[in-house]
Design goal:
This protein is mainly β. Helices cover 3% and strands 50% of the residues. Strand 20 and strand 21 form a beta hairpin.
Length: 419
């Protein structure tokens, strides 16, 4: 696949994800006034869940409420004026999601049917090779996969994707040092909250009571940075490959900051039709002091023919808490405390193995048509995938599993029109 100069530059600077550059085709774009363009897509799916009715949670497009029926996922609209070649260039971008799965965005507004994925002002300053800024609601700077499913190798998201922040309200700056080195850094509000949500200022009054200053921010912010190394033409078949590393220190004032560590790579092979990739995610303090979760994924993309592509993903993930929300939250009665406590199945250590195979075949122009099979396996052998989780009312044995198994399978069909 060939990419234009700006696409390669953006990937090298960490402005777009490695995975989306590998698999995404340029969609049709309509030009409006003054260089503004209008584009978007409509994303639909049909999902069948054979066997037990639970699986590892990845993202809203494969959540339990999508099982065994048809789904409107997202109708997305992008309005953009891209930066031009000028030394003092300015532009903007607004990515808007409509439909029930907009609720998965940090910028979800108006209930379940509208959300702001991105909305930022883009600026370029004539510093060296050009210093590019984004200010507003911005996609996360780490991750092999992105929020737009059509730009990913697979329809479903990876287990690592669920550990990452989806977007930030703040500012990033990116700089292309050389053809092979790109840098990006940023500062933002609290990473895992919604648009404009800040860490609240709290204090103590003279009586020692905790007070809140009307929800005003306390100045605790999220800090992030990443570097991309890109293989040059002199490296033979590896040319175009990239290695990406990033860290996000998620601002939180109520305890230890959660920190995301990410490393990803996209690597061409001597067989030009085959590309491989990998991603490593580690989240510390994600569910409180001392907690952790990690996921490793390997990707293979094979362009079988002009119209057919086969994408595969293999994952290993583990955590010391239920990072992938297997099983529902249930209320468990604690007789000694005479109260109910929220208990989530598999709240202790979990280990998962997962594989995903996606067949993408282009039947119509501007349309993505693909089918996918996802298999999740409980490496602990605890039979955590089940039809039902029953509250027993016992503190010592708080739940029972109905029809438990170590394996879960999900079948999906996905049709997307890009305009």
């Amino acid at each position: 696949m060939k990419f234009n100069q700006w696409t390669v530059g953006l990937a090298a600077a960490g402005v777009v994800s490695l995975g989306s550059v590998v698999v995404a085709d340029e969609g049709p774009v309509n030009t409006l006034v003054s260089g503004t363009t209008l584009s978007g897509y409509v994303d639909t799916s049909a999902i069948y869940k054979p066997g037990v009715q639970s699986a590892a949670y990845r993202f809203v497009n494969t959540a339990p409420n999508t099982y065994n029926g048809f789904n409107l996922n997202v109708a997305a609209l992008t309005i953009e004026k891209a930066l031009d070649e000028g030394q003092w260039s300015a532009g903007y971008k607004a990515d808007l999601w409509f439909g029930p799965q907009s609720v998965g965005l940090p910028g979800a507004l108006g209930g379940d049917n509208f959300g702001v994925k991105q909305a930022y002002v883009a600026l370029r300053a004539p510093v060296g090779n050009g210093l590019d800024f984004k200010v507003g609601q911005i996609d996360a700077i780490i991750g092999y996969e992105v929020l737009d499913s059509y730009a990913n190798p697979n329809f479903s998201r990876s287990l690592g994707f669920n550990l990452e922040p989806f977007s930030h309200t703040g500012m990033t700056a990116s700089y292309q040092v050389t053809d092979w080195l790109g840098l990006v850094g940023g500062i933002a509000d609290s990473a895992f909250n919604g648009t404009n949500v800040k860490e609240t200022y709290n204090g103590q009054n003279d009586n020692g009571n905790i007070t809140s200053n009307g929800g005003a921010g306390n100045g605790t912010l999220t800090y992030m940075g990443a570097v991309t190394l890109k293989a040059t033409e002199s490296m033979g078949f590896l040319a175009g490959g990239a290695l990406y590393a990033g860290i996000v220190d998620n601002g939180y004032s109520g305890g230890p900051n959660s920190i995301n560590y990410y490393v990803g790579a996209s690597i061409p092979t001597p067989i030009k039709e085959i590309t491989v990739g990998g991603a490593f995610d580690y989240l510390s303090e994600g569910a409180g002091d001392g907690t952790w979760a990690t996921a490793v994924a390997g990707y293979v993309s094979w362009q079988v023919s002009e119209k057919m592509k086969l994408n595969a993903r293999v994952e290993f993930a583990k955590s010391d808490y239920n990072a992938w929300a297997i099983g529902p939250s249930i209320e468990v009665y604690n007789p000694s405390a005479n109260e109910y406590d929220t208990f989530r199945l598999n709240s202790g250590s979990s280990r998962l193995l997962s594989s995903t195979v996606t067949l993408d075949y282009q039947l119509w122009a501007n349309v993505i048509t693909r089918v996918e099979v996802i298999w999740d396996h409980d490496l602990n052998g605890s039979e955590i995938f089940a039809d039902e989780y029953v509250d027993t009312g016992s503190a010592s044995d708080p739940y029972s599993i109905v029809n438990g198994t170590n394996n879960s399978v999900l079948l999906a069909a996905n049709i997307i029109y890009k305009f």
